[in-house]
Amino acid sequence: MYSSVATGKHEKDIVCDSDKRQGPYVPPPPLHTLVAQTKFSANDLRHLYKAFKNVCHSGVATKETFCAALSYVFHEAVSQSYAILTFNAFDKCSRGHITFSDFVQTLSRLLHGTREEILNWVFDLYDFDKDGYISRQELTALIRAVHNLLGAPHGSRGSVEDIDEKVNWMFNKFDVDRDGKIGRREFITICLQDQIILESLKAFGNSL
């Protein structure tokens, strides 16, 4: 299927009826372009595109499609709020949808990227208004979403007080210049100095 796009065949040759029902088909970039932009092989990309296209018939993932797919993969364990935050981190250009190129470039960074690249993505997950800083409001929303996803930690009820305590702890740790917000460089620098966070990153990579 991807080879048809990459070799220049007209898109009507690879658009099925379900694609037409869901709107105009958005083809991926040429295969050689994505090989150059990611750390996936051409064969990896063909398999990924087949899986992506099976779920996203039009060639793009909307917020609704993406959230539904996460719920299916994780057996509905993913909360709606966490799924939306994850979608926003993939949708770096804030277009309201994720292209196949968006998807594989982000996945490549998470699977094969350096620690700095992974931390940059984690920062983007927190910074959902994409202003380059993590605010208290954003941090509170993410911690609440994680509680909804995983359940409150042992011995904690996930109350407003518990969440506020975690937010205060993180700001004391990461807001080095005490300006009431966490910048990207502050976040990455502190993370790279924290052995527990580095071990968590390793576990995160192994779980993907």
Automatic annotation (TrEMBL):
GO molecular function annotation: calcium ion binding
PROSITE patterns, per the entry: EF_HAND_1, EF_HAND_2
Pfam families: EF-hand_7
Transmembrane segments annotated in the record for this chain: none
This protein's UniProt keywords: Calcium, Metal-binding, Repeat
EF-hand domain segment(s): 78-113, 114-149, 162-197
CDD domains xref list: EFh
InterPro entries noted in UniProt: EF-hand-dom_pair, EF_Hand_1_Ca_BS, EF_hand_dom, Recoverin
Protein name (record): Kv channel interacting protein 4
Organism, as annotated: Echinococcus granulosus
